């Protein structure tokens, strides 16, 4: 009796185990890279526009020993100005249907935020928000131009959200905001930022 089938079985089992391990590894890597479940999920964010903290000051009450001092009335202090729109624009779709409005807003404390309002786009792996020096019709073609400014990961694919702009940023250098998938180098959507 020949033991050729036994020898073949000895070599076949490790080869099948190695092939199964490679298939599982490839499937795991594919799930990590493509994250296909995100095609069926949504994340909604509803942030209010940041408001300055209320400053509470208390004036000293009348004292029995202090007499009023004649002189000019104290200067009235003006309340800080509210948020001011610097630029705004509507989103254009890129690789995914994207709608909503982008606003660059100067807050009362002098800081700036990029506010996305009524955003509606797709979820995806490693999606980020950028300011780009290019106009939206160019920045959405897999190119963000010179020195794009990353403001962070997209917080949600639906709703209203704020992204702080670093202090000292020259806002006049940027002409659009872009929702960009870092992993696949594609634009989900972009909005021109026209002066308000």
From TrEMBL:
It comes from the Bacteria. Pfam families: DM13 (PF10517). Residues 82-194 form the DM13 domain. InterPro entries: DM13_domain (IPR019545). Signal peptide: none annotated. Residues 60-98 are annotated as: Disordered. Residues 60-84 have a biased composition (Low complexity). This is DM13 domain-containing protein.
């Amino acid at each position: 009796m020949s033991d050729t089938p036994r020898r073949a079985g000895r070599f076949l089992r490790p080869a099948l185990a190695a092939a199964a391990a490679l298939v599982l590894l490839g499937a795991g890597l594919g799930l990590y890279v493509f994250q296909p479940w995100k095609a069926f999920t949504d994340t909604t964010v509803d942030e209010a526009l940041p408001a300055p903290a209320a400053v509470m000051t208390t004036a000293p009450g009348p004292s029995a020993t202090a007499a009023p001092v004649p002189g000019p009335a104290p200067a009235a202090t003006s309340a800080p100005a509210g948020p001011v729109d610097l630029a705004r624009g509507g989103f254009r779709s890129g690789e995914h249907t994207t709608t909503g409005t982008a606003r660059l807003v100067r807050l009362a404390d002098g800081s700036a935020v990029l506010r996305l309002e009524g955003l509606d786009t797709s979820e995806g792996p490693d999606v980020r928000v950028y300011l780009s020096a290019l106009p939206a019709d160019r920045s959405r073609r897999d190119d963000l131009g010179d020195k794009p400014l990353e403001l962070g990961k997209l917080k949600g694919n639906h709703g209203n959200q704020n992204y702080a702009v670093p202090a000292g940023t020259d806002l006049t250098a940027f002409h659009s905001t872009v929702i960009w998938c870092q992993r696949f180098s594609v634009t989900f959507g972009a909005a021109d930022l026209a002066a308000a």
